[in-house]
TrEMBL record:
Membership in a protein family: Belongs to the FMN-dependent alpha-hydroxy acid dehydrogenase family.
SUPFAM superfamilies hit by this protein: FMN-linked oxidoreductases (SSF51395)
Molecular function terms, GO-annotated: FMN binding; oxidoreductase activity
Designated name of the protein: FMN-dependent alpha-hydroxy acid dehydrogenase
Top-rank taxon: Bacteria
Pfam families in the record: FMN_dh (PF01070)
Species in which this protein is naturally found: Treponema saccharophilum DSM 2985
Active site residues per record: H236 (proton acceptor)
Keyword annotations of the record: Flavoprotein, FMN, Oxidoreductase
Amino acid sequence: MTYSEVLEEARKCIGDKCKACPVCNGIACKNAIPGPGAKGSGTVATRNFNAWQNIFVNMDTIYKNGAVDTSVEFLGKHFALPVFAGPVGSVNFHYGEKFDDLSYNHTLLTACAKNGIAGFTGDGVNIKVMEGAAKSIAANGGIGIPTIKPWDSETIKEKMELARQGKPFAMAMDIDGAGLPFLKNRNPPAGSKSVEELSEIVKAAGVPFIIKGIMTARGAEKALEAGASAIVVSNHGGRVLDGCPATAEVLPEIVSAVGGRMKIIVDGGIRSGTDIFRALALGANAVIIARPFVTAVFGGGEEGVKVYVEKLKSELEDTMSMTGALKISDISRDMIRIVR
């Protein structure tokens, strides 16, 4: 399959909210929730995408020629790309009936592992979602990251115990999920967590822990204080707070605050290998891409994921070769310029 064919097939089965657009920029779906859109005005997802387009790449091909290597070491594992597939929950509710959370997570994790990257799994009210995620992660040798929402403490313990059965190389919590309505209305309450509460959760994980949903330098410092091994600079794709800045806009200040002391991942509007390069040049160690992987799974299953990963790798290799970066560690801030 080609990537165009993946998109064409996805449009036939992905439901009426996502349009499987050639460029996933949040415009066609805007505030279509349920669906892939952003909250309120629906503009934050588009702001995420546009912010990367305001970062330009400095071309320089005067250097000793050699093969480009896009691989990275991350939290003790080797990956072909500094890219992770993002966690997606309530798949059939948002994207159509072809996949539910269990079948989506299994397809995604299997395809990611086969193609040298890892996927985050989503979470939900149904306990079988985490049970299925753990089984799929175990089947792929621990290459997968179960993501637990900020439930009440007893639910978190239950979910973590299930997640550990998959022997994942890392776990995560999307702390920004505190803005989701179905969490706010729970009893006992779920939502925001103190540094002390997060510290207990990190210790209980027993593996490197990633906190997703960091949008300020102070938030990053609190995650570091709680003992997180990594953070994800993320506004949840604009789905939990209208009017917040783009992730690319806050990434530099977060890198300045905690860079070198913990791993920094960024998501939000990253769609191409060139976008990955931009993020790494701003100081991120890796990126998460979510919505396009949904399209890839709906449009081609494991093959669709393979096609998309190969597309990203080719684009990243091309950008690196045209800027003089033969390996990921060569990518530096002076290889980009930001135009306001």
